[in-house]
Design a protein that fits this description.
globular, 32% helix, alpha+beta, 4 helices
Length: 129
């Protein structure tokens, strides 16, 4: 699979809530750079840490947190940028903004992910400390 095909397959599986298939595209040593200054920020090492972070996000948002690709994927060698919209709610707090996820793909596996938010301060306020 090309880098783009790997990211498409990952996003499709995640969109169907098929987490085991989505995570099968991660390398064992995958690194996930979660931006900001909130309870989920920081470097996550490996699928287990990433899974715990995502489970935490889904728990406090009561399953409302969602990502939707909203434009064409952009490829530069082994890097794939996915523009997206992400949204959710936590009690009275609402989140609805644009972002970009940047994936590094090597040997058919996602080895590193960097996330970028349109308004990091608003995302920090949404997730809290």
């Amino acid at each position: 699979m090309t880098a783009k095909e790997v990211v498409i397959a990952y996003a499709e599986a995640l969109g169907k809530a098929d987490v085991p298939t989505a995570f099968s595209y991660f390398s064992e040593g995958v690194k996930w750079h979660q931006p900001g200054d909130n309870q989920f920020s920081g470097l996550k090492n490996g699928p287990d840490e990433i899974g715990k972070m995502i489970a935490g996000m889904m728990e406090i948002s009561k399953g409302t947190f969602a990502l939707t690709p909203n434009s064409n994927l952009m490829v530069n060698g082994d890097l794939v940028a996915m523009p997206l919209r992400f949204s959710g709610s936590i009690e009275e707090r609402k989140l609805d903004m644009l972002g970009v996820d940047l994936f590094k793909v090597e040997n058919g596996k996602i080895t590193e992910v960097w996330l970028f938010s349109d308004d990091q301060e608003a995302e920090n306020a949404f997730w809290g400390k």
